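ok trying this again, last paste got cut off
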Amino acid sequence: MTESIFEKPTSITIDALSYLSEVLKNGLKKDLQKHQKLCEDCKGTGLQITNQRYGLSNDPDKHKHLPYNNQYIISCRGCYSGVVSLCKFCNEKLSRFNDCDCPEALHEKDIERATREQEIWDKAIKLDPSDDITKKMGMYHSDDYPHSDGYFEEFEDFIEKWEENHEPDEPKPVYVWGTRLVSLSLDADDILDRASEDLHEDVLDDVKGKEELQNYLDKWCAKQSGTTTYYGENKYAIRIPWGD
């Protein structure tokens, strides 16, 4: 068997400048909005060079882990299309997520958050703990409850945990959110559709006892009490019985 002779990759320098000069001979037009400027990293081009380094398993020269390179042009990681946004308060460059942590920006976010919460509250149906709808929920949710991802069963437990973790003079939350219950369910039509995928086209027309199968599935699912799952939702706002 003849041993192959290793040949190193040939290094070639691409004349990218001449290509880009032709493509971009008229420049790039940018219509900057208020609180925007060109990205200093890519000079407004929206481009940058990245290195894709690689090695070859049969390379006898092992002193470098990834000695070879393929460079190419990608979108600039510091901006969008060569433009960055500036904070309208402090005029500092914003991250790609348009976040700023200056006091004025944080204050505006607090106001926006409070406005959204007020809108949700205004749309919610208000209930008391003694209402039948409340009692049938079985579980409630609040970001102020420090355990079980905010889910709890008894208001007494919620109040106890709040008092353990807060000072008496701290403002107390007024309400918690209701939940909806979801349990395991199986649909006979769906099961039959999947089971008959490789059968003839009209096979489902000849299937008998679909209602019988669905009744069995419903009874079987009703036994699977461990599958019960609660999801918090903003449909019902339930008053916390602090003084009751």
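PB: full thing came through this time. Residues 103-123 form the longest helix (21 residues).
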